[in-house]
Design brief:
This protein is an alpha/beta fold and about 260 residues long. Helices cover about 45% and strands about 10% of the residues. Strands 3-2-1-5-4-6 form a six-stranded parallel beta sheet.
Amino acid sequence: MSLAQVRIILVEPAGPLNVGAVARVMKNMGLQQLILVSPHCDPLGEEARLMAVHGLNILEQVQQVGSLPEALQGCQQTIATTARPRSLPTPLETPSQALPWLLTSNLPSALIFGPEDRGLSNEELNYAQRFLCIPASPAYPSLNLAQSVAICAYELYQAAQIPLEFSSFPSTSFSKLASFDVLEGYYQHLEMVLLKMGYLFPHTAKAKMEKLRRLYNRSNLSAEEVALLRGILGQINSIWQHLPDNYSHKSKLSRSD
């Protein structure tokens, strides 16, 4: 896969200097796709342009979208950056461990960075399959956004120069991994069916779906496997719809709705 297929996604960036610096280092390292989610600055303003230098073409081609799912449309593999473990059950990886994985697909992949003041929220982290943390001195571990992108861009460039050892990655055929769009369709379908069955309740659905998402994301599902799972959900939903209205659990759920 070409580095040109890797999307660098900045969620709600606030500093035009950071955006410009990111465009510059992307140009240095052969990356071309910069996507901004609801930016809080003008990415084409004078400050950003001054910092971009010869990366001005990347800045001028920047895509601005309203949500993270929109930025991830068409992606197959996604990594999110985070500065702390939070409640993630998945271990954090270093850039050199995680980033070569983004180069194993023929479809677009994405590296996600959070806002300068807070990083990515748990909800935003749900859209990633792997999580990356840049090791730094405990005395001052906080990195500037542009510095973080620079470190990761360098690691991606280095990984692109070396033939990948596919044996170090999950055995699922990379060309058949389910895309972000396919997985999101499945998660929405799953939540709908589980709510209808009474396994999920509206007030706790978000927390349980976070856990289910991470479980499935770790599994590296193929598009064929997702289709199989959706077939099961469709059958469950069909059977549920044909249950008599006086079926105790169904009747109870109807009253609670």
